[in-house]
Amino acid sequence: MIRNPIPWPNKARCAVAITFDMDADSLIHIARPEDSHRRLYPTSMGRYGPNVAVPRILETYRRFGLKQSFFIPGWCIETYPDTVEAILKDGHEIGHHGWIHEDPIATYGNQREPFERALDAHRRICGKVPRGYRAPVYNITDEVVDLMLEHGMTYDSSLMGDDIPHSLQAPKGRLYEMPVHWGTDDWPPFAHYDEIGYLMPVKSPSEGLAAFWEEFESQYEAGGFFMLILHPFLTGRLARWRQVEKWIEGVLKTRKVWFTTLGGIADHMTALENAGTWSPSVEPLPYFTTPPAQQG
Ligand SMILES: [Zn+2]
């Protein structure tokens, strides 16, 4: 069982969101700021995302009629405007993912500048302020929560405290949370990236993706929420994406699922709350105001 299941539209049994974090080459520039311009291999690995993988992913979504969510750092929005335009033209959602993938813990106390610089890129190039946010490396902080609320944003997707979407009650306001976890993230099975400290043994496409499909089966059985957290330069590679396509095709034929954007889930939650038919579990923030291990 899961606690407080959400009644999904059209009696769907499970909501499904295939989310992509289009980090592109921001990862190498933030990790190696002094000489990333000389590092052609990791730059090319990142550029594969917007240049090769995203067009492939968009083609699949068009074929199946799906609208999905992408999270893109502001610097990548500015660097790859044609890819961003293609994503928006097909009706997908783009969320906030930092300026150049800076870790909100590493920049704690100074997040306003990169956060708002990214918002400006969204305004200028996407023509709107994003409703959702996913923290680079999931490291959301109270500082970012405050900035999100100040800018009228609706949901975060960085935390791991529940199985399904719920609500975060912070001192300055409320957000929805679309929870992530490592079992549905493609970094552990597929990332091999020495320059940023990851040397995972790369799994075969079927083995790496099989873990995700097991996660789906239990969420489906429980009437829950299945979200993948993918990266175009990892899962948008030919052999992996071919298997994801086959999975989408099978699920659309045989299961009652609701493929949607995270913004779509937020709207559905608001509608249920307004109708008084369901209310979300509430996670109060902050969890702590001082480090517990340092208390006397
Ligand atoms: Zn990222």
Automatic annotation (TrEMBL):
MF-aspect GO terms: hydrolase activity, acting on carbon-nitrogen (but not peptide) bonds
Primary role: Is involved in generating a small heat-stable compound (Nod), an acylated oligomer of N-acetylglucosamine, that stimulates mitosis in various plant protoplasts.
Record-stated family: Belongs to the polysaccharide deacetylase family.
Listed name of the protein: Chitooligosaccharide deacetylase
CDD domains recorded: CE4_HpPgdA_like (cd10938)
Domain of life: Bacteria
Domain NodB homology: 38-260
Segments passing through the bilayer: none
Entry's Gene Ontology BP terms: carbohydrate metabolic process
SUPFAM superfamilies: Glycoside hydrolase/deacetylase
